[in-house]
């Protein structure tokens, strides 16, 4: 017997309670037995149960009331209803209130055990899903895609450590947001977070920016000055674009990481600080090492916990979620009434490649809000750039212009069935846009011998976009 039984049996008939208990015991399950609704509520309040076997006919209350309470309080239990008065209405009402299964008396030991076993598996899966429940917002990040969930978990795991973190990713993917998230999750969160862009500071000033200088150390050093290392003491120093750092300074940085000590420019006194270093680059650091532009020993000192941020074009599920968040935030900031996107605008946003990643999306939404008014942001309010460079060119008006020129040219070149639309469409010829898109994609797949990756390459979209749209079509 365990200290916290996993099964609660609520049955007011003592003989039946004994029979059900024996069934459970023979299969290795522990259970607690109660004979009233009041006692059942007390046990549920104590917690620790995963399955409740609930008789609907109790001396002090209807079992449905207990089921309703479980649902309202969102208790993590699977409820199996037991009743001798089975009916379609009772079953439907029980399931509507969240019952996992329904047993009609009399039932066999095998039927009970199979039901309990399935209910326990159901709860186990539910707990696993809850443990990795999608987070749509995480310390400045927006997105619930699997790629971002993995990054959130890495940040959670790495935050308590002092180990250096090396963040890679294209410009605009949120590397500084990632560094700040690591800091905010860590025990150092109440200490300074000091960012330093190694690519934005002149080479001859970089050492002073990191370590500081004393008065008279060089022309213009009119007073003593603390560098980023001193300012970040106790907290986190974020070195962005680390691969832009000069090789001579890389040597000093390596010595600093190894010893925790440094000298200000022009000083002979060693100073010691306690900081965590997080660095980032939009380059491929190993290639920089192989080309001789980045020290190998420094790379391995920094590359303890790697985090790669995916480009926005590989986060199809997140694009519109991020855009919607920006829309709400910037509309409030600018005093505008925008609250949603039109379906046309949403399609353009979802189909664009976003070479500038989140930073570009951010600028596009702000631009559209600042230069327009209304409650719904429409396609014609978006910059023309999006219409010309989207993965699936999309324009309001004529159905003629919906498919991309590239895909049309490809299909014609390969002598497949031509993609044709009326040159001067009339009302009865106009089709829903999703059907036109569906036909264009299906023709591309057929022309590529059924290969979705090849079709996606020719249509200039991600294969995941086609898979996602096929699911949407099947659901229509």
UniProtKB/TrEMBL annotation:
<dbReference type="InterPro" id="IPR009057">
    <property type="entry name" value="Homeodomain-like_sf"/>
</dbReference>
<dbReference type="InterPro" id="IPR003593">
    <property type="entry name" value="AAA+_ATPase"/>
</dbReference>
<dbReference type="InterPro" id="IPR027417">
    <property type="entry name" value="P-loop_NTPase"/>
</dbReference>
<keyword id="KW-0805">Transcription regulation</keyword>
<dbReference type="InterPro" id="IPR025943">
    <property type="entry name" value="Sigma_54_int_dom_ATP-bd_2"/>
</dbReference>
<keyword id="KW-0804">Transcription</keyword>
<protein>
    <submittedName>
        <fullName>Sigma-54-dependent transcriptional regulator</fullName>
    </submittedName>
</protein>
<dbReference type="InterPro" id="IPR002078">
    <property type="entry name" value="Sigma_54_int"/>
</dbReference>
<dbReference type="InterPro" id="IPR025944">
    <property type="entry name" value="Sigma_54_int_dom_CS"/>
</dbReference>
<dbReference type="InterPro" id="IPR058031">
    <property type="entry name" value="AAA_lid_NorR"/>
</dbReference>
<feature type="domain" description="Sigma-54 factor interaction">
    <location>
        <begin position="141"/>
        <end position="370"/>
    </location>
</feature>
<keyword id="KW-0902">Two-component regulatory system</keyword>
<keyword id="KW-0067">ATP-binding</keyword>
<feature type="modified residue" description="4-aspartylphosphate">
    <location>
        <position position="55"/>
    </location>
</feature>
<dbReference type="InterPro" id="IPR002197">
    <property type="entry name" value="HTH_Fis"/>
</dbReference>
<keyword id="KW-0238">DNA-binding</keyword>
<keyword id="KW-0547">Nucleotide-binding</keyword>
<keyword id="KW-0597">Phosphoprotein</keyword>
<dbReference type="InterPro" id="IPR011006">
    <property type="entry name" value="CheY-like_superfamily"/>
</dbReference>
<dbReference type="Pfam" id="PF25601">
    <property type="entry name" value="AAA_lid_14"/>
</dbReference>
<dbReference type="Pfam" id="PF00072">
    <property type="entry name" value="Response_reg"/>
</dbReference>
<feature type="domain" description="Response regulatory">
    <location>
        <begin position="6"/>
        <end position="120"/>
    </location>
</feature>
<dbReference type="Pfam" id="PF02954">
    <property type="entry name" value="HTH_8"/>
</dbReference>
<dbReference type="Pfam" id="PF00158">
    <property type="entry name" value="Sigma54_activat"/>
</dbReference>
<dbReference type="InterPro" id="IPR001789">
    <property type="entry name" value="Sig_transdc_resp-reg_receiver"/>
</dbReference>
<keyword id="KW-0010">Activator</keyword>
């Amino acid at each position: 017997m365990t200290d916290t039984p996993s099964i609660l049996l609520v049955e007011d008939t003592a003989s039946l309670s004994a029979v059900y208990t024996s069934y459970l015991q023979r299969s290795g399950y522990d259970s607690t037995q109660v004979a009233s609704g009041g006692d059942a509520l007390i046990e549920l309040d104590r917690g620790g149960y995963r399955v409740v076997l609930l008789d609907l006919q109790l001396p002090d209350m209807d079992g449905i009331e207990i089921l309703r309470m479980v649902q309202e309080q969102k208790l993590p239990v699977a409820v199996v209803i037991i009743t001798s008065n089975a009916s379609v209405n009772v079953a439907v009402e029980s399931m509507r209130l969240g019952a996992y299964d329904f047993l009609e008396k009399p039932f066999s030991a095998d039927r009970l055990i199979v039901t309990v076993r399935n209910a326990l598996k159901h709860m186990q899966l539910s707990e696993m899903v809850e443990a990795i429940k999608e987070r749509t917002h995480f310390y400045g990040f927006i997105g619930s895609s699997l790629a971002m969930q993995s990054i959130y978990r890495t940040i959670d795991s790495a935050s308590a450590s002092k180990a250096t973190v090396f963040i890679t990713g294209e410009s605009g993917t949120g590397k500084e947001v990632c560094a700040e998230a690591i800091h905010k999750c860590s025990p150092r969160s109440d200490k300074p977070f000091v960012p330093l862009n190694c690519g934005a500071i002149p080479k001859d000033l970089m050492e002073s920016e990191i370590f500081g200088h004393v008065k008279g150390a060089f022309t213009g050093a009119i007073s003593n000055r603390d560098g980023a290392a001193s300012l970040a003491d106790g907290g986190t120093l974020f070195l962005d674009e680390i691969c832009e750092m000069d090789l001579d300074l890389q040597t000093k940085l390596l010595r600093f990481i190894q010893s925790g000590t440094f000298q200000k420019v022009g000083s002979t006194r060693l100073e010691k600080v306690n900081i965590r270093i997080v660095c980032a680059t939009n380059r491929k650091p190993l290639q920089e090492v192989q080309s001789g532009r980045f020290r190998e020993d420094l790379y391995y000192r920094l590359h303890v916990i790697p985090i790669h941020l995916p480009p926005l074009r590989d986060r199809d599920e997140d694009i519109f979620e991020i855009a919607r968040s920006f829309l709400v935030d910037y509309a409030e900031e600018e005093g505008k009434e925008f609250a949603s996107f039109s379906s046309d605008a949403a399609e353009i946003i979802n189909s664009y490649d976003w070479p500038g990643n989140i930073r570009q999306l951010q600028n596009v939404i702000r631009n559209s809000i600042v230069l327009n008014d209304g409650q719904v942001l429409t396609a014609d309010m978006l910059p023309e750039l999006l219409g010309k460079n989207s993965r699936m060119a999309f324009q309001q008006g004529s159905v003629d212009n919906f498919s991309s020129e590239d895909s049309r040219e490809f299909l014609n070149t390969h002598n497949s069935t031509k993609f044709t639309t009326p040159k001067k469409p009339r009302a009865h010829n106009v089709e829903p846009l999703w059907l036109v898109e569906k036909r264009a994609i299906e023709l591309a797949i057929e022309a590529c011998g059924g290969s979705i990756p090849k079709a996606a390459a020719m249509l200039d979209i991600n294969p995941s976009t086609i898979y996602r749209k096929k699911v949407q079509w099947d659901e229509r």
